[in-house]
Amino acid sequence: MTKQTMKAVGLIKYLPIDDAESLIDVELEKPVATGKDILVKVKAISVNPVDVKVRSPKSRIEEAPRVLGWDVAGVVEQVGEDCTLFRLGDEVYYAGSIKRAGGNSEYHLVDERIVGSKPATLSYAEAAALPLTSITAWEGLFDRLGISKGKDDNAGKTLLIIGAAGGVGSIAIQLAKHAGLTVIGTASRPESAQWAKGLGADHVINHFEEFLPQLQAAGFAQVDYIFCLNSTEKHWKSMAAVIAPQGKICSIVETDELLNLTLLKDKSVTFVWELMFTRSMFGTPDMIEQHKLLNEVARLVDEGVIRTTTTDKLEPINAANLRKAHAMLESGRTVGKVVLERFE
């Protein structure tokens, strides 16, 4: 039997994004779904900082093209023999696993336990903007920080989101407001501050300035929770200064510098990391929680509680447009999400 092939965008060498070889168009063997995997026909993808980080220049050379991409919206083409959650033709969205081939391909294999049903009210491109950031925001707020989903429980409580206008922050603002929190976001440009306020942030401060004086000027002596989405080490002292006694801090940004945890001791502050790939990386017993939360996000989208964070759309899906999308993220000036649609 002749093996079927598919179009994909991959890399062999890890190069600067302005190098035409940094991301290349390739033909790969079309995969087959077995076990708990489903095979998805990819309709749209989105680009995240993790794509840029993985692709960043290094001396390593791949023997076969490596495919990136951890945001997909598409249609179920095939299901493995152990699948119970999806059927052929179902519309889905998901982020996938960092340990497997990414979704920048015409067809993509993914474990059904980390896949959700696509919001019915969104296009594929609009849906592709949501999975990775929604999972990160949800897990950060509700699993790591332990914030209640009940509005009454959060009356009077405050959340500071550092880097509020990015992909994760854009979802976190909306989820936190729906949960009844007072949300303070950080942004450094007028357009990003306006974006954060448009999504529901009650106040916006500048993350290039000390937090405490700005919070005090806005009427806050401290905050109950901090969700750090930008430069953990840079903001560490400011976070320690403004977090409330017995408060909680969650960060998604790794650091090359040692963090002085002693700054948190007198206040008995909790610090926790969030990585949305943890469940799929380690095959944790609760992997299916990502399926559940994506379905809940889809419900909130369809009810008008959460809106897509798509701000830029490129088509078709090919190496040239993915290089353009990576360059946009590397500029550090994007708000919301960059999505790509349609293989030619």
Automatic annotation (TrEMBL):
InterPro entries: ADH-like_N, ADH_Zn_typ-1, ER, GroES-like_sf, NAD(P)-bd_dom_sf, Quin_OxRdtase/zeta-crystal_CS, Zinc-ADH_QOR/CCCR. It is found in: Cytoplasm. CDD domains: AL_MDR (cd08252). PROSITE patterns: QOR_ZETA_CRYSTAL (PS01162). Residues 18-340 form the Enoyl reductase (ER) domain. It comes from the Bacteria. It holds the Pfam family ADH_N. Keywords: Cytoplasm, Metal-binding, NADP, Oxidoreductase, RNA-binding, Zinc. Belongs to the zinc-containing alcohol dehydrogenase family. Quinone oxidoreductase subfamily. PANTHER family: QUINONE OXIDOREDUCTASE. Homotetramer. This is Zinc-type alcohol dehydrogenase-like protein.
